Amino acid sequence: MSGSTQSFLKKYWLLLVFVVLKMVAQYLVVNPVYELQRDEYLYLDQANHLAMGYASVPPLTSWISLIIQALGNGIFWVRFFPALSGAATMVMVWLTINELGGTIRAQVLAGCALLFSALLRLNILFQPNSFDILAWTTIFYFLIKYIHTLQNRWLFWFAVAVGVGFLNKYNVVFLVAGLLPAMVISSYRKLFVNRYFYYAIALALLIILPNLIWQVQHNYPVVHHMKELNDHILANGDRKAFLFTQLLFFIGSDPVILAAFVAFAVYKPFRQYRIIGCTYLFTMLIFTWLRAKDYYAFGLYPVLLAFGPVYIERICATGWKRYIVPALVALNLILFFPLVQAVFPVLAPGDIEKKGEKFKALGLLRWEDGKDHPIPEDFADMLGWKEMADKTLAVYKQLPDSEKTRTLVLTDNYGEAGAINYFNRGQMPPGAPG
Predict the structure, then answer these.
(1) Rounded to whole angstroms, how far apart are CA atoms 194 and 190?
(2) Spatial separation of the C-alpha atoms in residues 331 and 234, rounded to whole Å
(3) 101 falls within a domain
(4) Percentage of the chain lying above the pLDDT 70 cut
(5) Would residue 16 count as lying in a domain?
(6) DSSP state string for 304-344
(7) Is 229 exposed, middle or buried (0-12, 13-18, 19+ CB in 10 A)?
(8) Which end of the chain is less enclosed by CB atoms within 10 A, N or C?
(9) Is-contact 275 178, C-beta < 8 A?
(10) What is the Cβ-side half-sphere exposure of residue 34, based on CA atoms within 13 angstroms?
(11) pLDDT, tens digit, for every residue of 148-167?
(12) Are residues 231 and 362 in the same domain?
C-alpha cells in the first residue's frame, strides 16, 4: 500500500465507513417483495429515447439510465445510483465541515443526521431528486470555498455545479432565485462588478444551452408541464403542511439545523456565511408562495448539517457540554428507528394489513383520492408491475405473427408503458411512455 493511500485512509476511514453504511442501508430498507416504483419505469425507458430534454425533466437522468441499461438493467443497479448520490451528498457535507474547520465529532454528528433521516427514504427511488440534493449540496460547497478563499476559480466550479444540476432537474432554478437576493443584501453584492462572475454565468449557460435549444425547438414543453403541475397539484398544496413537513425530514436532527441558524446570527466566525442562511430563507419563501411539494426544498438542509455540528462542537468542547454531541446522536437514533417500519417499505403488504390500525392512525393509508386503503400509496406503486407485464406478453405471444406488427398496446399511464418495456425488452416491440 502506497504512502498516499495510507494517508488517505487515515484521514477518511470514518467517512468510508459512513459511505458503506449508507450504501448497504439503502438495500436493507426495501423488502424484496417490492418492485420498482411507477416513476422509475419512465426514467429507465428514457434510455431508449435519448434526447436533450423531455416533457417534464432535463436529460441527465436518461444518461444514467443508459449506464444502468449497459450494466444489465437489474434492480440492483437501478437502486445503486440514487444510493450513490446520497453517499456523495454525505461526502460533500464531510468536505464542507473540513472547510469550516470542524473535527471528527462534527462529522460524526452530521453523518448520523444524514444517514438516519428522510434522505434514506428519498434515495430508494431512481428519480432526479437524489442527484438534485447532491447538486444543491455541491453548489453550496463551492460557494463556501469562494467565500473562504475569494479565489475566482471557485466561481467557475460553482457554475459547473449549477449547470449540471439544471440538466438534472429544473428545481435548481429556485435555489439560484433564492441566492440572488441574498447576494444583494450581503457584502457579496460586490460580485456584480466582478467580471469573473459573468464569465461563470456564461459557463453555466453554455452547459445548459443544449437543453435550452431543445426547449425552443419543442415549443417550451417545460412551461406546459409547470402549468399542468400548478393547475392540478401545486394549486391544491397546503402551505402550512409544506412548512410542517420540513421539520420531519431530519426529525432527529432539528436541533442541529436550528444551531446552524443560531450560528449565522451570533457566531462571529460564521458571519461571512450568512448569505447561506439568507438563501435558505428566500428560497423557502419562494417555495411557500408557490405551494411547492415539500421535498423540493430538501436540498437546502445538508449544508445546514455542516454548519450546525461545527458550531455545536465548538461551543460544547469542555465540561459537561462535551456530552451534548453524543446526546444529539442518541436523540436522532431514538426518534428515527421507531419510524422505520412506517416510513420505509420493509414490511410485506400482508404484514402492513395486520398492523393497519397503527398505519391508519399515522394517516399513512390515505391516498390521493382521499380514501384509506390497505397499504400506503407509495408502497402500492411498487407492486404488480411484473405481473402486468407478464400478462401483456402472454397475450401478445398468442397473436398470429401477421397481427403482431399491427398490434398497439394501450396503457393508462407511463408507469404501465415503462414497466412493459422494462420487463419485456427484446420480447415485444418497444413503446414510448407518454
Answers:
(1) 7
(2) 34
(3) yes
(4) 95
(5) yes
(6) HHHHHHHHHHHHT-SGGGGGHHHHHHHHHHHHHGGGHHHHS
(7) middle
(8) N
(9) no
(10) 28
(11) 999 999 999 999 999 999 99
(12) no
